[in-house]
Design a protein that fits this description.
InterPro entries: DDH_dom (IPR001667), DHH_sf (IPR038763), DHHA1_dom (IPR003156), Oligoribo/pAp-PDE_c-di-AMP_PDE (IPR051319). It comes from Planotetraspora phitsanulokensis. This is Phosphoesterase. The chain has about 350 residues and is α/β, with parallel strands linked by helices. The protein has two domains: about 10-205, inorganic pyrophosphatase (n-terminal core); about 210-330, Diaminopimelate Epimerase, Chain A, domain 1 (Roll), CATH 3.10.310. About 35% of the residues lie in helices and about 15% in strands. It has twelve helices and eleven strands. The protein has helices spanning about 10-20, 35-50, 110, 140-150, 160-170, 185-195, 200-205, 215-225, 245-250, 260-265, 295-300, 320-325, and strands at about 25-30, 55-60, 90-95, 115-120, 130-135, 225-230, 235-240, 270-280, 285-290, 305, 310-315. It has a six-stranded mixed sheet with strand order 6-7-8-9-11-10, with helices on both faces. The protein has a five-stranded parallel sheet with strand order 2-1-3-4-5. The two termini are about 30 Å apart. The structure holds adenosine monophosphate and manganese (II) ion (MN) (2 copies).
């Protein structure tokens, strides 16, 4: 069953199936600071493999190895091992939702020594690292490609696998609001819901709950939000930041502030929304969103990060003001020949 474009060559699908079928054990990895698509695609595939009797480990290369609170409801957490316990030279390693080798963080050396390195991803900016590429920029999420691989392997999508794949699909389409929301995306959701998952429960876990402290920290962030209507070639920027001091004042963990961008980006007067979030180690993770006039993926790639045209990010080691000074000149309409 082909559920999306033909970006992946038939011979590459066949080779992937052959590699997985021939493997006694498979090591899975997704990008650092995993989001719903990264963890959902990796754990969904891992659960389907384990059900078929394959020996599976899964991980991501963060120095502080914690699953974001929002994603702890995902089935398959018991597949996870810390980077230190990951096979140093896995015969078969598969990466999920990582556009560059660097996005594997602490697992880069393991990937470098893998016998075969299969890359499953949907970023246009994918650099082509690895020895086999299941990369389809037209796929709404990495879980779209994983669903097809599971089918081609003849594996079963049970309720738990479906919950993982659905989570990647709904997070990367912004709950079927972004432009990647195609008939194929809805058709896939229909198949997964038919496997027995509860879309209402997953939506609540992902978007409709927070500790009370979140409201206080959101309040602080909204207190200093800035609108710059003339910036981004006249399309406008709205931006704010969340300091670790603000979070500490209310004992709010870093992984609770992911939703701030969804409040800020609704502003009519700006095409581009930016939220700078200070992690506990002082590094600023910058989230950017565009309504379509500006290519934030290209801007973030230019600053050492990456992402998609309408959702992207990068890391910064300087103040929010200085980071914005560096970002503004890159916020331009997409190049016609890009
Ligand atoms: P976020 O704002 O964290 O939800 O990230 C939005 C998208 O930007 C993600 O799905 C990634 O594709 C990409 N992204 C975020 N941070 C980085 C980074 N440091 N390097 C590369 N890509 C990133
Ligand atoms: Mn991702
Ligand atoms: Mn993704």
């Amino acid at each position: 069953m082909t559920t999306h474009g033909t970006a992946v060559a038939e011979t590459d699908w066949e080779r992937a199936v052959e590699l997985v079928r021939g493997a006694g054990s498979v090591a899975l990895a997704c990008h650092v600071s995993p989001d719903g698509d990264a963890l959902g695609s990796m754990l969904g595939f891992g659960l389907a493999l384990r059900r078929a009797g394959v020996d599976v480990v899964a991980s991501f290369g963060d120095r502080e190895f914690v699953v974001p609170r929002l994603l702890r409801f995902l089935p398959g957490q018991d597949l996870l091992v810390e980077p230190a316990a990951y096979p140093p030279e896995p015969p078969l390693m598969i990466t999920f939702d990582a556009s560059t080798m660097a996005r594997l963080g602490l697992l880069v050396p393991n990937a470098g020594k893998a016998g075969d390195l299969v890359v499953i991803d949907h970023h246009v900016s994918n650099t082509g690292f690895g020895s086999l590429h299941l990369v389809d920029p037209s796929a709404a999420s990495t879980t779209v490609i994983v669903e097809e691989l599971i089918h081609r392997l003849g594996l079963v999508i049970d309720r738990d696998v479906a919950a993982c794949l659905y989570t990647g699909l709904v997070t990367d389409t912004g709950s079927f609001r972004y432009s990647a929301t195609t008939p194929a995306a809805h058709a896939m959701a229909g198949r997964l819901i038919a496997a027995g998952l509860r879309p209402d429960e997953i939506a609540r876990e992902l978007w409709d709950r927070s500790p009370f402290a979140y409201l206080r920290v959101l309040g602080a962030a909204l207190d200093h939000v800035t609108l710059e209507p003339a910036e981004a070639a006249g399309h406008g920027i709205v931006w704010t930041y969340v300091t670790r001091a603000d979070r500490a004042a209310h004992a709010l963990p870093y992984d609770e502030v992911e939703g701030v961008i969804d409040v800020v980006r609704r502003v009519d007067e700006a095409d581009v929304a930016v939220v700078l979030k200070e992690a506990d180690d002082g590094v600023w993770n910058v989230s950017t969103r565009s309504k379509g006039a500006i290519d934030v993926g290209r801007a973030c790639t230019a600053l050492g990060g990456g992402g998609h045209r309408s959702a992207a990010g990068f890391s910064s080691h300087v103040s929010p003001e200085e980071t914005m000074d560096a970002l503004r000149p890159h916020l331009r309409p997409p190049h016609p020949s890009a």
